[in-house]
Amino acid sequence: MQQVMIPAISDSSAQQIIKILGDTNIFYTLPQIIISIGALVTMMIAAISREERGQVINYITSVFFLFAGLVSSVWLASLPKGDAFSGMVSSDLFSGILNIIYSGSALLIILVAHSYFRNRGRYIQELFPLIQFAVVGMMFMTMANNLIIVFLGLEILSVSLYVLAGIDNMDTRSNEAAVKYFLMGAFSSAFLLYGIALVYGGTGSTGLREIAAYINNKSIWQNIYIPAGIILMLIGFGFKVSMVPFHMWTPDVYQGAPLMITAFMSTAPKAAALSAFAKILISMNLEPGSSIMLTNLIGVLAVVTMTVGNLMALNQNDIKRIMAFSSIAHVGYLLIAVCIMNREALAALIFYFCVYTIMNIGFFSLLSLLARDEDRNLTLEGIQGLGKSRPLLGLFLLIFLFSLSGIPPTAGFAAKFFIFNTAIENKFYLLAILGILNSAISAYYYLRIILYAFIREPESGSIDQWSQIKLNAACFVVIFVTAAAVLEIGIVPGYIIDLGKKAIQFL
Amino acid sequence: MNFSEYAWLIVFSPFIGFLINGLVGRKFSEKTIGLIGSLASTLSFVISVLIFFQYSALSQKAPIQIDLFKWIVAGGINVSIGYQIDSLSLVMVLVVTGVGSLIHFYSIGYMHGEKGFARYFAYLNLFMFSMLNLVLGNNILLMFLGWEGVGLCSYLLIGYYYETDYAPTAGKKAFIVNRIGDFGFLIGIFLIIQNFGTLNFTELSTVVAKGTSVGNDTIFWITLMLFVGATGKSAQIPLYVWLPDAMAGPTPVSALIHAATMVTSGVYMIARLSFLYVLAPETMAIVAFVGGATALFAATIGTQQNDIKKVLAYSTVSQLGFMFMAVGVGAFTAGIFHLVTHAFFKALLFLGSGSIIYALHHEQDMRNMGGLRKKLPVTFFTFLMGTLAIAGTPFFSGFFSKDEILWKVFNYSSLLFWMGALAAMLTSFYMFRLVFMTFFGEMRYHEHGGHHVHESPAVMTVPLIILAVLSVFGGFMGIPHVLDVFHVGNYFEHFLSSSVKDSLPIVFGTKEEWGTMSLSVIIAIIGFTIAYVIYLKKKYVPGDDSTIKGYKKVIYNKYYVDEMYERTVISGTIRISKTVYEYFDKLVIDGIVNGVGKSIRRIGEGIRGTQTGLVRDYMLTMIIGVSIMLVYVLVNKFMMIRL
Amino acid sequence: MFIHTFGPVAIQIAFAIGMALFLLIFTNAIGPKKYNPVKFDTYECGVSYFNDARGMFNVKFYLIAVIFILFDIEAVFIIPWSVIFMEFKKLGLGLFILGEMAVFLGVLVLAYIYIIKKGALKWD
Questions:
Q1: Helix, strand, coil proportions of chain B in percent (round to 5)?
Q2: Labelling B525: which of A266, A390, B334, B585 has CA 20 to 30 A away?
């Protein structure tokens, strides 16, 4: 019997295997592993048990795993920088902070979403694994050192979000939102992939470090593929963060998706997409001179994005739709930081992510309490009389809206101040002025909500409706913690800014 | 015992009052609420008086710094929550807490029985907290924090009677106009950070004193932008329009916020940053002439108003113009001095008018008043003292401060002086017009339903009396040199000199000083006489709004400035946003993309069009965007090659 | 230079197009034309059609097709693994790489259990 021929292993090949295994450093992806296990476990629970008990078990399990992911993210953030999987992903303070944002925001969302979906009467347990998968995708996006990994993470995230948008499968609007989001998301992913392909064609690698080494000290114009590729990647990411003119899906999807899913979609994924793009730009080591084209383009997009977002929000009546346009406007401010494209601006970006995530989740959690009648979206008229009959809820509303419009002493002010200040320090005067003007415009529609909640005389009977709202513990804790954080960061923002500055040293 | 260590208590005492009244206030009785609010403010006053005595005894009056904690440490800037005690901030704190406390007590009587008593006092305390942050803060950012805070409280308090139609609108107007000013202020702050790298007043002045490399152009823009902020907050041309409307708030609020304290913060800001302003003579000239123009312009409007509070409001705008004129010519001490005396007599006048309004059950139209002298003796007497003070009667407080301003301005520009003098004459005229129409002549108010007009309770009259005493004698702390027969010296100027020094060279001598002084007295008498002849001798009472004609109609309608803003700025903004909505949202999305004549109807709630149609259209928009961006790359590429 | 390298290709293309056009036009011109209903049928010979091609399928077809593709692609991953398996074994890492595949398949099995529990493979 003839023995199967095994090709002889050369020494170099053996060494390569050992080297690769030695470079794996799998513990640097500990948060992803923990949350992936959590996702699988909760998926199994969702498949096996459907009753109310299963819901509670699933809820507790996912809170446990997300919390473990959060803790391990904090632990990893405290470790020195390190590579995993032969440099395909790397862990440092930058990715650590963003991982904390992702897992933390998912945790907060789940805490509120449990009671939200339960009150609606339609409880889909797949919510939990999907959110956790999304978190894993986002973590890979940020930690990635390779465009392929970025794309992989983005797809894990996007597919989860498509399903999440349509999680309420009996609601036609939710279904519509999901289909729209999926079709357009697939479309935009193609652009991203094409961009990656062009950059690969132009530089001969998909690894960020190799690309940086290739571009280093040379113009990006050495061939047209590199700038074109970057632009196409900008489009792919721009879609995810709803940058104008790729924002069209935002109002429809935000309005159609269930409230807490909208809250999730509008915070962490935007941070993931923008931070991934910023990381790509920064690590490409673009010389300031060679990227004037890019700076101008992103600057114009920033201004257009915030202006369109703010102006469209002015005439809206549906609060969810206002928030959709408001999130577009906030992306505009964030793009200012991307436009400046240096490390200091990245620190401002991280700070803005933190603040925006906290205040947006807080505000949406509050809305989830206020949205009593589930077939109807919350309109401006719908919140009349809130301030009078539930002053505590009114106070929270006030805090979050002040923060969103950037009035001191809230975190929103500190975040905007930091971004505009960075812009001015880097001599982007026009951007700063237009940004400030825009935030003045935005104050109008945020204050309009306050006006309706406090000043307008409520319709008769709506006071009774307000008194029917039951505060449930988890939701209240989330609102309270976020509101306190908004004020705390607003008054003492220094240490988070310091953290952000430290984070970008490692990149 | 070093009282200045307790300076933080000045700021936080009203805040604690705000927390108590704001959170649990509605459970208390009116008396408890009022006492908590007033005592919180009084405590601040007591501490500041103690600090004042200790500080004024010092021979070396260096600013005392109290840093509480680091606030923002980022980039080149290092901002802490910290307070600075020097002579300028002490003067401001004494005015704010002193007048503020009196108004708190007065409010207990005035607001008796109003809905939301606790809310009112909570807002009032929050205002005190913000205002004290503004004047005590040792850096511009903290000042800006207070600046925004007082704006917010002003907005909330103007809209206090939210059931009415006009109050919320007035609040919104005040807020929006102030936001426009704040925009300038913020730019100023950013420019300072960028050029000087610090926001701390002391550090900033050290940097400036050492001689800086920052160009004059930059300093011009910094100071001008900050002044834009001041025109918003302190109601100067062109952003003064909100102040008269702000009278929709309760009268004590008008006295505290819109006369004595908040509106003067622009003057304080310029005095605080005087070391920067003196480096920009162009800005100073702009400040001075804007101030002079405002003083004259507002005074003319004041002569034709029939609402008692509107008269006082335009008077405030005009007097603020005087202060800006003073700081603009470099007479910072005179400006602050007038700020102080104005706080006394204008608070008095507003509270007096509040007492009248209270007695007449919210009647504010002077055409329906008259003959109240007998019915409201205390109010009448104190009001008369205030009027004499503001009109510039010799040896009343307003005489000293206004005369000093006019004298200093005379050294700067005679045109500005004549503008000021004319405004002073008009001031005397409209104030006596107010007094004659209100207190003299026949009673035109119809008592009905068993309501009798009677004097206000003691909790309201006692603050009036205290303020009247201050209005009469308050001027003696700043006696001009020519009148200083006993050689006691100008105490005010001396005290303030440790933090603010005048930059104006005095070119004229004693003779001219006597001249301007006697001229201002003559002017006051002329104003008084005209008012006397028209309103007391001829017993003239303006007719209904419809009968007012000619130039009077133009003035009565405030030169139609509001209407002008309405037609241009406001409707312009609305039109732009509507246009964007109509054309961008409807045309770009629904129109261009959707093709020919296929208008998508709204199906269901806010979902436009059918699914497939929309996604196709969205994608088309995306494709257009992508194409533009890629063409942009190509264009860049070719431009590169050509270069 | 351009002509030199791409000339033959261009000639080839021109010849191909010309030939096709020539044949089409020529046969059309000289061929006899006799029409009958059978000639206009979708399929001139074979089964006659009975329905519109754009008919609807049961959605289960798609579901099962998608699931099939997913598992199919995952299975492809096993092939490179099996190719390098012996190399690892020689290095004494055989158990390790077996464990890796076990984890991978374990996750797949979990997904399979999920599909069955959710009733995605039930036809009715």
A1: 75, 5, 20
A2: B334
Q: At what angle do helices B397-412 and B308-329 cross, to 10 degrees?
A: 40
Q: CA-nearest residue of chain A to B177?
A: A440
Q: What is the dihedral of CA B326, B332, B337, B339, to 10 degrees?
A: 70
Q: What percent of chain A has pLDDT over 70?
A: 92
Dihedral sign for Cα atoms in the order B549, B551, B555, B557: positive
B186 Cβ neighbours under 8 A, 6+ residues apart: A420, A436, B144, B229
Q: Is the pLDDT of residue B53 over 80?
A: yes
User: What average pLDDT does the segment B184-205 reach?
Assistant: 86
| CA separation for the pair B156, B249 (Å, rounded) | 9
Task: Inform me whether the C-beta atom of residue B70 falls under 8 Å from chain A C-beta atoms.
Answer: yes
- Give, in degrees to the nearest 5, the angle at Cα B536 between B532 and B537: 90
Q: Are A97 and A503 in contact (CB under 8 A)?
A: yes
The stretch B422-432 carries a mean pLDDT of 91
Interchain contact, B73 vs A424, CB within 8 Å: no
pLDDT tens-digit readout, A213-251: 888 766 777 778 888 899 999 999 999 999 988 888 888
Using CA atoms, how far residue C55 sits from C60, C66, C124, in Å, is: 15, 20, 20
- Assess contact for B278 and B503: CB atoms under 8 A: yes
pLDDT of residue A355: 94
Determine contact: A422 vs chain B, CB below 8 A: yes
Highest averaged pLDDT of the listed ranges A85-89, A198-202, C37-41, C85-89:
A198-202
Residue B583 near chain A (CB below 8 Å): no
Q: Which of A3, A5, A40, A42 to mutate to test the interface with C (most CBs of C within 10 A)?
A: A40
Residues of chain B numbered 621-640 and touching chain A (CB < 8 Å): 621-622, 624-626, 629-630, 632-634, 636-637, 640
Chain B residues with beta carbon closer than 8 angstroms to that of A443? 179
Question: What residue type is B423 in one-letter code?
Answer: A
Task: For residue range B587-604, list pLDDT tens digits in order.
Answer: 555 554 454 334 333 333
| Nearest one of B542, B356, B535, B363 to B446, comparing CA atoms | B363
In this structure, are residues B320 and B343 in contact, taking their beta carbons and an 8 Å threshold? no
pTM for the full model?
Answer: 0.59
Per-residue DSSP letter, A460: T
ipTM above 0.95, yes or no: no
CA distance B596 to B601: 14
Residue of C nearest to A41 (CA): C110
Interface check A231 vs B, CB under 8 A: yes
Of the candidates B349, B339, B348, B346, the residue with the CA atom closest to the CA atom of residue B401? B339
Through-space distance between the first and last CA atoms of chain C, rounded to whole angstroms: 68
| CB nearest B72 (choices: A297, A437, A497) | A497
- Mutual orientation of helices B414-439 and B308-329 as an angle, nearest 10°? 160
Label residue B316 left, alpha or beta by phi (over 0 means left) and psi (-120 to 50 means alpha): alpha
Taking the C-alpha atoms of residue B153 and residue B252, their distance in angstroms, rounded to an integer, is 14
Distance of alpha carbon B389 from alpha carbon A206, whole angstroms: 80
Q: Contact C86/A6, CB-based, under 8 Å?
A: yes
Residues 6+ apart with CB under 8 A from A213: none
Q: Kindly state the helix (H) or strand (E) to which residue A342 belongs, with its residue range.
A: none
Find the residue in C nearest to A37 (Cα). Answer: C107
Closest CA to B223 of B184, B167, B250: B184
Those residues whose C-beta lies under 8 Å from the C-beta of residue A166, and which sit 6 or more positions away, are: A174, A175, A177, A178, A179, A257
Q: Which two tokens stand for residue A196?
A: 């990656």
Q: Which amino acid type is present at position A273?
A: A
**A99 close to A142: Cβ distance less than 8 angstroms:** yes
User: ∠ CA(B208), CA(B210), CA(B213), 5° rounding?
Assistant: 65
- Which chain A residue shows the shortest CA-CA distance from C119? A47
